[in-house]
Amino acid sequence: MTLEILLALTTFAFVSSITPGPNNLMLMTSGVNFGILRTIPHMLGVALGFMLMVFLVGIGLVQLFDTYPISYTILKIVSIAYLLYLAWKIAMTRKVSKLEGEEQGTPMTFMQAALFQWVNPKAWTMALTAITVYAPQPSTTIGVTIVAVIFGLVNLPSVSVWAYLGQEMSRFLGTPTRVRAFNISAALLLVASLYPLLTPAT
Description:
Distance between the termini: 33 Å
Low-confidence stretches: 96-102
Order of helices and strands: HHHHHEEHHHHH
Mean pLDDT: 81
Oligomer: single chain
């Protein structure tokens, strides 16, 4: 892999990781409701889970779609259903009440965040683009590993920005009403992220 391709890959990894999407929306919401420290497993699950996804796609998993086209349709249906479920959970989440000593909802775990990558439409787009555009062709295990590691190194600090932003936003969301309004807004944005899946390819 040449230096030019490596720099282009790093730029693509940064831009695609830092821009809004289901992962970043959920991390920001988690930062608002639970703080950045309790969101660390979620952040690690996103970064490491996506890195594994890129690797598996690169070594041939994507060929499953070519061999069995129905598998892509099934993936779309599962993705839509799970994202709608997550949107509902976000909308119903209420911030931890220190006065009442009760907690409504819990942050996403490492494993949940890692598995979420497989039903995240933006993650699939990123992984497929990274492998088809930046991995050496024909793909080799070393080349795919380099692409996956670059994404892992860039992705973690990028997504952490969103969790930190959420934590800082919580300072301005000091009332249950404001937090509820924020969570509902985040849930609606998450639903809106389904648009590419619902729009027929042209």
